[in-house]
Amino acid sequence: MLRLVAILVLALAQPALAASPNEPITGTAKVLDGGTIEVTTKKDTVRLGLVGINAPGAAQQCMAKSRPWLCGAASSKHLAELIGRSQVTCKRAGINADGKPVALCVANGRDLSEQMVRDGWAAADPQQGRDYQTAEGRARRAKTGIWQ
Asked: Does residue 96 sit in helix, strand or coil?
């Protein structure tokens, strides 16, 4: 009888143990490029794009004063510096135009998407990044990051 009760308790607890899609994702982040991270939690690893931004791919080159430079590597490095060794907390925000899951991610008390745009290492996404367009305009005028 005790065994039956234990099985019933475990069976009923299963839905409560499953992670909710609305549950924040908190863990350590590995930067894949200036707009994509992998967050490793206690349970698994989740690949997420930063919502509202378009950042250069890790190997992408940009032109500055008619010369190519590795803007993708620089953007990736900047995101890694923003995160440092701190935990990242992400809240799922849907799917972007490329079909990639995106999230609003915070590290060290900062919205990583906003900070990447503000520092000039990403552009505001025209569909999902309207909140970041003012910051992009300032970065462009200051000729910082990818806008040099």
From this structure: coil
Among 99, 115, 83, smallest CA distance to 49 is for 99
Q: Is the pLDDT at 139 greater than 90, yes or no? A: yes
Q: What are phi and psi of 46, to 5 degrees?
A: -125, 130
Structure tokens at 73: 């590597």
Q: What is the pLDDT of residues 63-72, one digit of tens each?
A: 988 999 999 9
CATH classification for the domain delimited by 21-147, as one of 3.40.50.620, 2.70.50.80, 2.40.50.90, 3.30.420.40: 2.40.50.90
- Rounded Cα distance between 42 and 26, Å, is 9
Alpha-carbon Rg for the chain, nearest whole angstrom, is 19
Residue type at 126?
P
